[in-house]
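Two proteins were folded this term; both appear here.
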Amino acid sequence: MKKLFYLFTILFAVVFAACEGTEPPTSNKVETGASENITKTSATLKGAVNVDIATYNSVEFGVMYDTLLAEVNNRSAQMVKGSVLMGKDFSINLADLTENTKYYYCAYLLLNGMQYEFGEVKEFVTLASNDTPDVPENPDTPDIPENPDTPEQPEDPEQPEDPSTPGSGTFVAEPFSVSATKTVTFSPGNLQYHPANDEWRFAPSQLDYVGADNAKISPSYNGWIDLFGWGTGNNPTNTSNYYKDYSTFVDWGVNKIGNDAPNTWRTLTGEEWEYLLWGRPNAEQLKGVARVNRVNGLILLPDSWTCPSGVTFKSGFNDDYGSYDYAAYQTFSSSEWTKLEASGAVFLPAAGYRGVYSVSQVQYDGRYWSASEGAVGYICYIGFYSNVDDVDGGNCFSGQSVRLVQD
C-alpha cells in the first residue's frame, strides 16, 4: 500500500553560476520538461525531480525563466517555486507574460538549502494576437489522438456534450471500504458553496464542477465555488497563503448541506483514502480513469460491484505516462454513465486547483482533500491524472475539491 508523501517548505534563495553568454552545465537530478497550454500571456512549464527527496532535509523545485538567454544561463532569471510533486513530476503555471515573445526556461532543484541543480535550457514563444494555440509537439506529452471512435477534446471543458447531463437522480449510494472494519457511502456530488447566500450544497451532478470561476472567490461573490483551502468548513472563502491561518481543521460536514442536518457528512482521512484506493480487496480493479460526457475524471466502484449490461468498464490508468488523454483510455456516453451511476459508481471530476491568483489544470488534474494533517503547512490529499493516482501532500492554502462521505 502506498505511503503518505509530504513535502517541506524552505526559504527562497538566489544563486549565480557560469559566465554570461556561456551554456551552463546541467544536472540529471532535475529535468526540464515541455512547455504547454501556451497563450498570449500564459504558459505551463513542466519538470521532473530525479532524486529521492526523502534523503534530504529540505527540497525546493521549480522553474527559472526570462526573455534573455544570458539571464537563464547566469542563473539570475526569475524563479517560480513549485508546491506539489505527482510522482516525480511537477508543473508551473506562468501568467502576465508578453505576447509574441520568446522565453527561455529551465527546471531547478535546491537541496538542503544550498545545493542548486539545473535542467537543460529550453524555450517557447507566446502567441501573437492573431495566433491560435498549437497542440504541444513534445514526445513526453503526446498529442491527443484523432480517433473517430472517441470525442475530441472540448473547446470549453466545462460544458457537457449532452445538455441532459445525468444528475444525482440516477446516483445510488453503495458501500466502499475505508478500513478492514468500516464502510462509507459517498455524497452524490462534489461540495459547493455560495458565499453571497451562505449556502452549501452538493453539485447537481457527479460530473459538475465550477472550474475557472473559483478565481472569483470572495465573501460577497454571488456564485458557486467548489475549490477550498484545507479545513475551511467554518471559513470557505479563506484565501490566505499563510499556513497558520489553516492551523485548525474544521470539517465541511459540520454545516447544513442542502436539506441534510449538520454533521451528516464528513471528510475521509488520508489513511482511509489509502485503504479505499489500494488496500481494500480487489482495489486495483475498482477504479479507472475515463471521460464521461466530455468531463475527465476518476471512477471509483463500490466493494460489491457488477458491471451493468451494455457497458464495458476498464480499470486502471493510461499507461502512456506523459499523456493527459483520458478519452483515449475509455469514454462513456450519457446513457452509459446513467447505467454506471445507478450501479453505485462514484465519479471524481478532474476539477483542477486554485492557486493564489488563478485556477489551473482544469480537466487534467484532480485533487481531493483529506482530514489528515502532515508536515507543517502541508496536508494529505488524493491526487490523480489520467495516468496515475497517489496520496500526496499539498499546501494547506491550495484550493482543492471536497467529496464527503457518510459512515
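Next, the second protein.
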Amino acid sequence: MAGILQLGFLADFLSHTVLIGFLTGVGIQISISELSEVLGIPHGSYGTLMQITYLFKYLYLTNIPTLLVSLSVIGIITLSGRIHSKVPGALLAMIGAIAVNWALDLSSYGITILGTVPGGLPHLSFPQVPLSDIPKILNTSVTCFVVILAQSAATSRAYAMKFSDTYNENLDLIGLSFANVAAGISGTFVVNGSPTKTEMVKSVGGYTQLTQLTAVFTVLIVLVFLTKPLAYLPTCVLSSVVLLIGLHLVDIKGMTALHRQRPVEFVVALITAMTVIFIGVKQGIEIAIVLSIIAHLRHSYRPLNLLLVPNAGGGLRTISLVEQQQAVEGLLIYRFGSNLYFANEKSFTEEIIALAKNTHSLKWFCISASNIEDVDFTSAEALKKVYTQLKKLDITLVLSDVVMPVMNELDRDGIIKIIGKDHIFKSVQDVIVAYKSLADS
C-alpha cells in the first residue's frame, strides 16, 4: 500500500547531512552490540548505554580464547581486503574457524559454538493467527512498517548518493512487500533494507542484482547440504564480521568534512547519530526527517535576498541589500530568494519598506519573482500591505519574472487588479526599458 500510495517521497526529507549521521549512528550502535560476543562476555542488557555500562562492569570476564579467535577473524578480513577488494575474507575466516573447531573442539576452551542449524527448505504455510491476537499483531505490524519505510528509504538514498546513482523508493517498498509475504508464509524474520547487509554486499564488490541471485542460490545450497558444518562455527566469528561491517558504516570522513565546512550541519548529523545510538533507529530516522525539514525551513525562512543592477559589460549582476544601489536613478530592483509563505512574509514586508524609506528619490520598486514558485494566502495579504505602504511613500510597485502558477494565485487574490497588469513585466530588462521610457517622457 505504501508503494502504491507513493509514500517513498518521505526519503526526500532525508538530507545528505542527516544520512551521514544516520549511517554513522547505525555503525556505532551495531559495533557496540557485538562487542560482548567478540569478547566472550555473557550477554547483558539491551540498549546501547546499558550495553556499554555492562561491558565496563564485566570486562574482567573476557574469555581470552574467544578474543583471540575474534582478533584472528578481524585480521584475516582486514588483510584480505588490503590484498584485493574481491577476496572473500569473511568467508575464508568462517571456513577456517569451522575447520579449527572441528579439529580442536574450541568449546572446551569456553568458546560459544553456533550449534545445530535446522536443514532443508522451509515449510510453506499460511500463518494461523487467533482472532484475539489480530489487534496486537496489527500494532506490531505498524511499528515494523515505520522502521522498514524509514530505514530502507535512508539506506537507498545514502548509497545512491555514495555512488551517484538513482533509486526508486516506491518500487523498493513494493519489492519489500513481496519479500515480507514470502517471509510470512515461510516463518522467517521481517525483511527490510538493511544498512549492514548493504555495506556487506558493497564491501565484496556487489553492485548489481546478480549479487542477490548468487546469495539466493548459496543459501539454498547451504540449507540443503551444508548446515552440519555450520554447527561448528564459533558465534564470535559472526559477531566479528558484523563488528567490522558496523565500523565500515561509520563515516569519519563525512563527519570531519561537515565539522570543517558546515559546523551547523555537523551538529545536525551528530544529533541524528546520537539518537540512533542511544534511543533507536526508528527514532533516529524520525529525528533525521524533522531536522532536515528544519534545515530547509531555516534557509527559506531567512533567504538570501539581493538587489539587481546593470553590469558594466551588459546584463545584470547581484549586490547586497546594504549597498542600496538603484538599477537606474529612481528604480530599485529587489530579488526575493525563496518561496513566499507565512513564515517569511514578515521579514519580506519589513525589508521592502526599509529599503523604500532609506533609498533616495525612489519612484519604482520592482520585485523580481524569479525564485518565487508559490504564494500562500498570508503572503498574498503581505503583498497588498507592501503595495499600500509604498503608495503612501509615492512609490510604484512593479513585479517581474512572475511564473504562471504564481500569476494565477495573484489573480485569484486580486493583487494583479490592485497593482495593474501594466506594472507586471516578463523580465527585469523589460522593467528597466519601461521605466526609462516613462522617465524620458
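The first strand starts at residue 306 and ends at 310. The beta strands are 306-310, 316-319, 331-335, 364-368, 396-400, 424-425. These notes refer to the second protein only.
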